[in-house]
Amino acid sequence: MNFNHSFVPLKLAEAQAFVAEHHRHSKPLKRHRFSIGVKTELGIKGIATVDNCSSSWANRHDHMEIRRVCTDGTKNLASFLLGKASMACFCMGARVVFTYTKPYEACSSLLADNWDIDGVSHRKGHMPLIRWMKESPWDRKIEGEVVNMVTGKRTPRDQHRKNKTLRMLKTLRAWQEKYKDAA
Q1: Among 84, 88, 105, 131, which one is least packed by beta carbons within 10 Å?
Q2: DSSP 3-state assignment of 54?
Q3: Contact 46, 81 (CB under 8 A)
Q4: Radius of gyration over alpha carbons of the chain, in Å?
């Protein structure tokens, strides 16, 4: 990807202002661990904001969460920012990075940056959220198999993850159809 832009760290106030102006459904965050952006001579084109996990993973210090990704519509910029933000997290010592999407969102930027669907976050009284994860490329992967405790079938770990992602994508498409009017 060849962007003729500058990749820069941002202050929280800069990220908040961009999100307030451009994000279609989320409010600006009140805190962050760090924010990054892409700037041109005309101003900021997109931002990614990273924080500690806001979910049950919050007590894990080697986990981080990308809380906001927002662009002005520049093609492929969201995937670029996701890749740069996750790599920055891994450089800071994170082993796993999470993010969440609403079921009606296309998620093409996450798929393009090789994120895996990890599950669904059900919040009482709210629309479910799709949880995505990306593991550090520098961690030694655990070799082995996953055993289905009901059938006893053994599946290589990589094949299990691929099958899980395919099942979750099928579910994601069904949710997108169900919640298409919520967008």
Answers
A1: 84
A2: coil
A3: yes
A4: 17
Instruction: Report the Cα–Cα distance between both ends of the chain, in Å, rounded.
Output: 29
| 103 Rama class: left (phi>0) / alpha (psi -120 to 50) / beta | alpha
| Residue 89 one-letter amino acid | C
pLDDT tens across 18-69, in order? 888 887 666 666 767 899 999 888 888 999 999 988 766 567 778 899 988 8
CATH topology classification for 6-140 = Aminopeptidase (3.40.630)
DSSP class of residue 33 equals S
Domain ranges of the chain: 6-140
List the structure tokens of 164. Answer: 């899980």
In 3D, which of 39, 33, 31, 26 has the Cα closest to residue 13? 31
| Farthest-apart Cα atoms in the chain, separation | 60
